[in-house]
Amino acid sequence: MIAPPDRTPLPRTFFDRPVLEVAPDLLGRVLVRSTPDGPIALRLTEVEAYDGQNDPGSHAYRGRTARNAVMFGPPGHVYVYFTYGMWHCMNLVCGPEGRASAVLLRAGEVVEGAELARKRRLSARNDKELAKGPARLATALGIDRALDGTDACAPDETPLRILTGTPVPSDQVRSGPRTGVSGEGGDGDLHPWRYWVADDPTVSPYRAHVPRRRRG
After folding, report:
1. What is the CA radius of gyration of the chain?
2. Is the pTM above the cut of 0.85?
3. DSSP-assigned beta bridge partners for residue 6
4. DSSP H or E run through 197
5. What is the pLDDT of residue 186?
6. d(Cα 5, Cα 30) in Å, to the nearest integer?
7. Distance in angstroms (rounded) separating the CA atoms of residues 77 and 99
8. Which residue in 96, 116, 94 sits closest to 47, CA to CA?
9. Please, what's the b/e burial string for 63-72 (b: 16 or more CB within 10 A of its CB; e: otherwise)?
10. Out of 85, 103, 137, 201, which residue is the most buried by the measure of CB atoms under 10 Å away?
11. What is the pLDDT of residue 166?
12. How far is 72 from 1, CA to CA, in rounded Å?
């Protein structure tokens, strides 16, 4: 008989570690989004690590800005950014305060509240696609910039919380180049910092960076 996933919230000490330790360890953990209509719970199956000013692929590579300020804050907080003028993406801040590292949540399996996620993801062909990719994940959970800076480790009620879940055994974890990252940051030999659960159908397909064409 398989034991049910552990619903104990992860402590702040879990996130107060190097980002390359935290990222693969997040696989199998459960993200819970509390909404007025009820909770949505997501088992994490794909993530990417970003190591601040040591990482040319990170938003914090060139230092602190108004946009990335949460990345420099205490571990266990949520960093939400808006991209391509269309989509939100959610990250979890790691390491000591001032270090600016974070893990992008790329994909997961909705294990509770699927009916709520379906209302936000009307284009999903099936439940495996509800959170298959970082923008889809954020859309399914109703994540936007209003949640930027949320403390996922707060002792009281919080709209986002990470539960212990069932950690993925190391032999089922795969790693490779990060999706859509340009230049040195997208080099899989230098930064194989995308981690996913082997053979999981909710993991998004890898796509190399494609430069955006300028209009006109």
Report:
1. 16
2. yes
3. 165
4. strand 194-197
5. 85
6. 9
7. 13
8. 94
9. eeeeebebbb
10. 137
11. 96
12. 43
> Which parts of 113-170 are beta strand (E)?
160-165
- Rounded distance, CA 176 to CA 186, Å? 10
List the structure tokens of 164.
């212990």
Residues listed for the chain: 216
Residue 126: which of 150, 109, 143 has the closest Cα?
Answer: 109
Amino acid (one-letter) located at 63: G
Q: Report the C-alpha gap between 209 and 67 in whole angstroms.
A: 22
* Contacts of 144 by beta carbon, 8 Å cutoff, 6+ apart: 80, 82, 88, 138
DSSP letter (8 states) at residue 166: -
- Alpha-carbon distance 51 to 55, whole Å? 5
Tell me, what's the pLDDT at 90? Answer: 98
Q: Are 98 and 51 in contact (CB under 8 A)?
A: no
Q: Which residue has the tokens 């899989």?
A: 188
Whole-angstrom distance, CA of residue 79 vs CA of residue 65: 13
Q: Give yes or no for a contact between 108 and 26, defined as CB atoms under 8 angstroms apart.
A: no
Counting as low any pLDDT under 70, the low residues of the chain are 1-3, 211-216
Q: Which two tokens stand for residue 194?
A: 């995308």
**Cα dihedral 184/189/195/200 (nearest 10):** 120
